[in-house]
Amino acid sequence: MKDVIKLLTSNNVPFKTNMPATLISSFRGGGVTSVIAYPESVDALSECLSAAVETGSPYMPLGNGTNVLVRDGGFKGIMISLVGFRSISIQGDLLVCGAGTGLRNVAEAAEAAGLSGLEELTGIPGTLGGATRMNAGAFGRELADLIDGVTVFDVATRSVRKFARSEIPFSYRSCGGAFDAAIVTGVALRLRPGTAIKEKSDFYRDKRRSLQPAAPSLGSVFLKPSDNMSAGYYIEKSGLKGARVGGAEISEKHANFIVNRGGGTASDYLALMSLAQTVVDGKYGIKLKPEIDIVGEE
Ligand SMILES: Cc1cc2nc3c(=O)[nH]c(=O)nc-3n(C[C@H](O)[C@H](O)[C@H](O)COP(=O)(O)OP(=O)(O)OC[C@H]3O[C@@H](n4cnc5c(N)ncnc54)[C@H](O)[C@@H]3O)c2cc1C
Q1: What residues make up the domain containing 150?
Q2: For the chain, what is the domain count?
Q3: Cα of 132 from ligand 1 centre, angstroms
Q4: Best mutation site among 45, 64, 67 for ligand 1 pocket (most ligand atoms within 8 Å of CB)
Q5: pLDDT digits (tens, 9 = 90+) for 125-177
Q6: How would you list the strands of the sheet with 182-190, edge to edge?
Q7: Is the pTM of this model over 0.90?
Q8: What residues are annotated to the active site?
Q9: Are residues 165 and 240 in the same domain?
Q10: What is the Å distance from ligand 1's center to 291 Cα?
Q11: Burial (CB count within 10 angstroms: exposed 0-12, middle 13-18, buried 19+), residue 181
Q12: H/E element holding 163?
């Protein structure tokens, strides 16, 4: 990592070294990331990618880390944080935002402008870039329903390009690989004028609070196995609520959440995932697939 540090330093890109997952992942447990860089411009982003490519280091973009589990062996590469790409501009019913803008801030700006569409997503703790990559959704609404276009930094050509909504094969919690070789830098959302936006947002935020645990987590662990059944249903029916490994626990409140009860490691989290997968497969023949992104070394 010395060469990476040298390159980032010589190009004035802010970075930190040896960052524990307690500060990166909202599970608040896991391994150490060698370098996390904080570019605030496309040029700086380009320098981060050059540093990674020239030194053969693995890299990944990072938003708020609310869907990322870093294995206990750590991520021996560069995480490129997009939180410096924060902006919101309202052009009629179009909201044009930097990828590092928190979904919460985007929803608040929409509400203040009398624009409707994001109410169901209020309370998802990620950035707009992370939410676009994951096609985040809740209560029947997906971000893909609102996206007008996405601006990315293309890793191969080292240039900025725009995707129209029709070019992105979004599906349930997926962008269809559209951003596998690209980092989202900006997202335009097409909303519509509405009424009672605050009331609707409050309703969904309260509903979320009543259904989800407050302890540190990564949100839903597994994807829905079918349209009409949730992973949580099968995990709960398998009697696994409250199951514990080390400091990690399958939430008593929501069976598709694994929470950190204090000192939980990534291995604890993964052991509970594996338990849920084995038991649900054995009882129901259903293979649960992770919704979260698992990175780093064992
Ligand atoms: C309490 C809680 C509740 C949650 N509720 C929901 C919910 O209701 N619905 C839902 O869908 N999710 C939910 N989540 C999961 C998570 O918040 C979302 O997936 C969110 O969109 C992730 O955003 P992030 O910025 O934290 O992304 P990160 O976790 O930082 O990254 C997630 C993935 O996206 C990639 N990525 C991040 N930024 C970019 C970028 N700019 N360009 C390209 N790739 C990028 C990362 O490399 C990683 O692969 C919840 C999580 C928690 C902790």
Answers
A1: 88-197
A2: 3
A3: 8
A4: 67
A5: 999 999 999 999 999 999 999 999 999 999 999 999 999 999 999 999 999 99
A6: 88-91, 94-98, 182-190, 147-154, 159-164
A7: yes
A8: 173, 220, 291
A9: no
A10: 10
A11: exposed
A12: strand 159-164
In tens, the pLDDT along 246-261 reads 999 999 999 999 999 9
Tell me the pLDDT band of 72, cut-offs 50, 70 and 90. Answer: very high
Shared-domain flag, residues 113 and 54: no
Is 177 inside any structural domain? yes
Q: Look up residue 177 and give its two tokens.
A: 């690989």
Hey, whose CA ends up nearest to atom 3 of ligand 1?
Answer: 219
Please work out whether the CB of residue 127 comes within 6 Å of at least one atom of ligand 1. Answer: yes
138 lines ligand 1 (CB under 6 A): yes
Question: Phi then psi for 139, rounded to 5 degrees?
Answer: 50, 40
Residue 204 inside a domain? The answer is no
| 179 and 108 within one domain | yes
Question: Is any atom of ligand 1 closer than 6 Å to the C-beta of 131?
Answer: yes
Whether 293 lines ligand 1, by a CB cut-off of 6 Å, is yes
Same domain, 218 and 276: yes
Token pair of 47, please? 């320098």
Task: Report which ligand 1 atom has the smallest distance to the Cα of 131.
Answer: 21
Which of 52, 81, 110 is the last residue before a domain boundary?
Answer: 81
